[in-house]
Amino acid sequence: MSQVCILTDSTAQFPTPAFFGRKLVNLIPLHIQLKDERYEKSEGIKAADLPMTARNGLNPQVIAPSIQEFENMYAYLGRFYDEVVAILHSAHLSKTYENAIAAAATTQGRAKIEVIDAQTTAIGLGLVVQSAAAAAEEGMGAVEIDDLIRSQLPRLYTVFCIQGLSYLYQSGYLEEAQAIVGEFLEILPIYILNEGQLVPTQKARNNRHLVDLFHEFLCEFNTLDHIALLQGVPPFETETRALRERLSFDYEETPISEHTISPELATMIGPRSLGLFVLQSE
After folding, report:
1. Where exactly are the structural domains of the chain?
2. Second CATH level (architecture) for the domain 155-280
3. What order do you get walking across the sheet with 2-9 strand by strand?
4. Contact status, residue 114 vs residue 6, Cβ threshold 8 Å
5. How many Å apart are CA 48 and CA 68, to the nearest integer?
6. Residue 92 Cα to chain centre, angstroms
7. Please, are residues 25 and 133 in contact by the beta-carbon 8 Å criterion?
8. Would you give the end-to-end CA distance of the chain in angstroms?
9. What is the pLDDT of residues 146-202, one digit of tens each?
10. 38-94 per-position pLDDT tens digit
């Protein structure tokens, strides 16, 4: 029996698809509900299938893996591993972390279970999981991996431009009136992830100003281990092209990856979102 494996959820997006320790990583899927239709494991739906506004009657919702699903996953992994380190997206975005903790408290088996709130999602979560997987491959135990990840989290920074404010209303971040007015005026609000919670910072005056704000965010850092762009649907093609040009000049030695928003995250914050994730060097 191998010592330790990593469990994460389906919001994770990996900058490097074939990374060291990949075989030790397992995924537990989230589900998506659109009115009366439920997409199990988020299969059969793409971010592009989601409406631009959550106010069109479809009532899009992301459904966290249940306590029972986590218990089943823990039991299955416990057949092959001594320890399971579950690294999951921010507890403020869904009940995934809450259900994982509840299942760990009731699961009885040989495997020891550690559950970590990564306080991030998407590529941020992917970066953390890749580090954990490499550590597991090198023989680290669950406690050591837990310490490693918690030391990395303060170096992860995320900024979003979220135009689908009705999705944030659905998630409990905004009042309905704010969401309606914001979408009507086509506001470009900027949010950061602060300890896993979406916090509004400012509004971009236009798309050019949006690029300036994202670039200013990056200029706060001297050295970075990774930069990732998260493209919404439909894509911010002009904005990402302009931002990419600035990045290639300012951070020519830093790895840069680009990704399309997942249906799970798009259901949480809306498909019309642009994200920037950075991992600061130690």
Report:
1. 2-154, 155-280
2. 2-Layer Sandwich (3.30)
3. 25-28, 2-9, 81-88, 112-117
4. no
5. 30
6. 11
7. yes
8. 34
9. 999 999 999 999 999 999 999 999 888 888 898 888 898 989 999 999 999 999 999
10. 999 999 999 999 999 988 888 899 999 999 999 999 999 999 999 999 999 999 999
Give all strands (DSSP E) within the chain, no chain letters.
2-9, 25-28, 31-34, 37-39, 61-63, 81-88, 112-117, 156-162, 188-194, 197-204, 224-231, 256-260, 273-280
Q: How many residues does the chain have?
A: 282
**Among candidates 235, 228, 278, which has minimal Cα distance to 257?**
228
Say how far apart CA 184 and CA 188 lie, in whole Å. 11
Interstrand relation of 112-117 and 81-88 (parallel, antiparallel or unpaired): parallel
Neighbours of 133 (CB within 10 A): 25
**CB distance 41 to 150 below 8 Å:** no
CA 233/CA 27 separation, integer angstroms: 24
Burial label, 220 (beta-carbon count in 10 A; 0-12, 13-18, 19+) = exposed
DSSP string, 99-143: HHHHHHHH--SSSEEEEEE-S--HHHHHHHHHHHHHHHHTT--HH
β-strand 31-34 against 273-280: which pairing, if any? unpaired
Residue closest to 26 by CA, chosen among 3, 6, 11, 1 = 6
Check: CATH 3.40.50.10170 for 2-154? yes
Radius of gyration of the chain (CA): 19
Spatial contact of 192 and 199, defined as CB atoms under 8 Å apart:
yes
For residue 60, is the peptide bond before it cis, meaning its omega torsion is within 30 degrees of 0? Answer: no
Residues 103 and 84: their CA atoms lie apart, in Å, by 13
